[in-house]
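Hello, quick one for you while I still have it in my head. A protein chain has come my way and I'm curious about its shape. Can you walk me through what the tokens say about the fold? No rush at all, and the record is pasted right below.
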Amino acid sequence: MANFTRIEVTTSMYKTGIVPVFYHPDPEVCKALLKACYDGGVRVFEFTNRADMAHEVFAEINKYALAELPGMMLGVGSIIDAPTTALYLQIGANFIVSPIVDSEMARICNKRKVAWSPGCGSVTEISLAHELGAEVVKVFPGGSVGGPSFVKGVRGPLPWASIMPTGGVEPTEENLSTWFKAGVHCVGLGSQLFTKDVIQNGNYSALESSVRKSIQFVENFR
């Protein structure tokens, strides 16, 4: 079961401004990266469901987070159906992120009061996601859908929309500035944050530094 409410997750997403997005089949690598992000200030982390038995990796790192990283809210992304949603909720996912809008996924999350962030690419999809109970909607792929100008445009007719773009976001002052000035709730950071140097060479100190700088950038923009 989830250890954090959807309101706690949503609030923490806004507070730090960044949500690292990552998958690796080795739980020990995931733990090291999770710890570096935590030490850098992250409190919401999205583990992506990208391979067979990924749920077993998640179960192990979630136990680690609960024991060693107080306040870390670990969730799961790349979920596209209701059965997989239920599986991850059973092993403790604190939120579910999807590249699509699916009403069955929404119902399962809502029954347990777990945060659900569906992927949207239009004002119509965002409005539907709100109707289905989403607090924060995911714009994916953020850069291809329309970038910061899309977010700014959406928030004209839907100023209450809380948007998290993923894809096309970089952990630099210039790039983050454009997104947050457009009005995003937070951003998802994947391969631009978890570089080959970090993964292949175990340069976790560089990851921690990048995370800390990104969070500071966000604070400056707000």
